[in-house]
Amino acid sequence: MDRWWPDEARDGTAVSKHVPTWIWVAAAAFAVGALIASLW
Description:
The chain is mostly helical. 68% of the residues lie in helices and 0% in strands. It starts with 7 loop residues before the first helix and ends with a helix. Keywords: Membrane, Transmembrane, Transmembrane helix. The chain crosses the membrane at residues 20-39.
């Protein structure tokens, strides 16, 4: 999973190491869906 975030080893972010990838995907999909819904 670290290959999706190559910068986290440098900037020292520990959040993405504790949060599964599917949660990030779901959050992004929800944000996009909410944005599209707000435009309709």
